């Protein structure tokens, strides 16, 4: 029986994540900040690359602020869903460091292709955090401009966006925007489950043979809804890259410093013309896949507790305290800011109007369609036929 | 006026060349489109003249062709993807239906995916399975996609350029059994004026019954009309050209005049384009109809072995038989 499988037998319930072998095995991972808050000066990747970061105190405090705000806004969205204000929510709880670390490593000109869970990256791109809530509330399909923020629309079909990112990166090459310091790169976000998809494997092939300036950023959060990593792979995911002909590295996805360092290096390599790479951010989804599933059905409490001890925010806090980079006032101020922003978010979500029904016909075709225009006109007349209609 | 006699295949090739010349953002991509020039040679010579960054030989994976083209389109390019055969488009179906078709809508109009997906479609060339299918209904059913097909060299030349210039994602179906048929092509034909991409066309005027067809069946129907004329019946033949959106103005006008309509396509009848056409014509022309709208189609079976495909495909006799039946009501 697979370790970590909820199974139901006494024996499996005693299993701990530490005893996992095979697929999830290979504990070697790039880490610059331990769960206990100890700083590690540098770490070496599987190909010998040395990773380190050198942040100012202000930058350290900034990362902490990001992590706390992102977690708080996510918690607010989860609460809104529980109160019936959102149809669904895909929480990032536990994955804040993977998202903030990689998101902050992006340069303005880099283009990101997210899944539906990348609220932390979205936040780092400077997009109003209310934007994805429109999608999950059902009032729009997500309202930001992908070109303005260099952050594409959320993609719900698993892995489809990795091909979009690859094509976009091919375009960067054709535009001649690699090989210089101000070059561009793209980053594709996906999860462990997505690595089983054909599209992701095709993206690996394409990116490799076209030497695309692209970073594949896999957040291995250990579960694809209920299916554990063992159902997706028998080899550590980062090792797959070798078979496609580009480097792969596993980073502690709960370590914001290491995630930042690894992503920045991979993006720099890409923009300098060295082609794609795969980052496996080894992390854990602390909540449900979405608000519609019940993780207690498929995973055991001890496993969740073990990951709780690796919390991505707690370790930064310990580090900041130990190094006297931040004091109690700072932490209180951040908490207060997070509270204010989440209240503000809530107020704005509740005020989000339903769209005018006739707008559902908008933006189907850039050039329009006579048959659709006719259907819209009929629908409008139908709506107007109701007594007292404001339409 | 520069007029040349070209096959449909060569007309498409010439149209693609024009598009590459006129817009540096146009990129052709697909399996074997480079050195080989495509298995039907539609992209013959283009890589040689425009380079391997404009005419890209891709790895052998259809979802990858379409999915990467989406990214190129987001980047500002206008990809023209070749799917080698109709029956090979299904691995790319998810990307086409869930991504290409919906990206504009999903982004509230902020993104456009000006992509053309070229698919040689239909039977009649004696091929093995997966090489003779008519998948148009799958795509025509999907909002956000437009679906067009040509039936002669002039349209092939103009329509492929119009499709590439359009910001809409377009599935461009090429009637592969007609690739080698020749016709006059005006190489200076305007792209926007005479025949907009989404307009149907009366290709043979007539008074007694209306025959609606597209792609490879247009020629079959024209031959049927010639034969019918010998029997004293004047059939009006309409080439739909656009399958989504359908341009039914000419069809309605025609049917109201003739009182009879026959729809002809190779694809199986069940939930096919013929059903949509019959329903719309019935709604719009009910009081003018002398008989029900009839369909002549492929059968509701997988495309059969080549040695019986002539029985599967609608031919002149089956079209004339249907015309006879419309007069028998």
UniProtKB/TrEMBL annotation, chain A:
Enzyme class: oxidoreductase
Skewed-composition ranges (Basic residues): 11-21
Stretches the record annotates as Disordered: 1-28
Gene Ontology BP term (one): branched-chain amino acid catabolic process
CDD domains found in the cross-reference section: TPP_E1_PDC_ADC_BCADC
EC number: 1.2.4.1
GO molecular function term, any single one: magnesium ion binding
Pfam families referenced in this protein's UniProt entry, alphabetically: E1_dh
Name of the protein: Pyruvate dehydrogenase (Acetyl-transferring) E1 component subunit alpha
Annotated source species: Micromonospora ureilytica
TrEMBL record, chain B:
Domain of life of the source: Bacteria
Residue span(s) of domain Transketolase-like pyrimidine-binding: 6-181
Entry cofactors: thiamine diphosphate
Top-level EC class: oxidoreductase
InterPro entries xref list: THDP-binding, Transketo_C/PFOR_II, Transketolase-like_Pyr-bd, Transketolase_C
Metal-binding listed as a keyword: no
Any one Pfam family match given in the protein's UniProt record, by short name: Transketolase_C
GO MF entries: magnesium ion binding; pyruvate dehydrogenase (acetyl-transferring) activity
UniProt EC number: 1.2.4.1
Entry keywords, A to Z: Oxidoreductase, Pyruvate, Thiamine pyrophosphate
Protein name: Alpha-ketoacid dehydrogenase subunit beta
